[in-house]
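Note to self: keep these together.
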Amino acid sequence: MTTVKFLNKQFNGPLVLASGVLGVNASSWGNVNKHGAGGITIKSCSLQPREGHPNPTMTGTKHYFINAVGLSNPGVEEVVKEVEVFRKTNKTPLIGSVFAGCVEDFGKCAKALAESAVDFIEIDISCPNVKHEFGEPYAFSPDATKKITAEVRKQVKKPIIIKLSADAPDIVAVGKAAEKAGADALCAINTMSGMAINAEMAAPVLSNVQGGVSGPAIKPMALKAVWDLYENVKIPIIGTGGVTYGVDAIEMLMAGASLVGVGSAVYFRKIDAFKLINEEIEDFMKKNNYKTIKSMIGAAHK
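Structure:
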């Protein structure tokens, strides 16, 4: 009832772990899968290990989180080793995720990860909390997106997913540029730029000053991004941002997403978030006579 075929790969359900949340190693991926995720997105990695930003790197409320972890990761070589460990016992679809500081390094890192047993390569061009190191996110520019996508396409035969930002002046133009350059799918959206201030200390809370906002508060922007992209591109979309309950995932599907990313919900509803959201989706489908996930994709468009 809730199986999904995405880029010719079968998923047991429409929910995938979003990058950066519990996606750090093989045991974590397996645990998330055991609790109901139909697919796993690995925490984004780079060519070389990266420490990320000093603490404090995270703050939040019941409505949102702001993080400036700074893309900390052990480097692509270590991530490939974890993929090998995971694949010894698990065939669940894996989305490898990479980031870099220049076009050439995106290609190199994607190629290295694609040579492992991941099924897809996500290209993170939209992280909002590393501006000091890398400048404005590449996802703000259709031209930069086109160049990165084309370079990765040259290096990688596996399906490519470009991760976009709702902070972009024109996310549709960026999505169309990625599609034209050879992307197989899009992921919308990444966290959005924001900050927090401690009034008593008269200072920013995060050491990095700004960070990426996630959680329920960004769902309306994520829905709008998915809606607009669905109206303008032909490739499938993974809808991510603020999905906490089954109805959130259903709205994302109806806006045009083919899969739904889940991240911060594991804080609000613990590791059972995937299982609970899946059950809520199934209940909705039975009550509203939807036989398949596919029948809900884009249903809100007239």
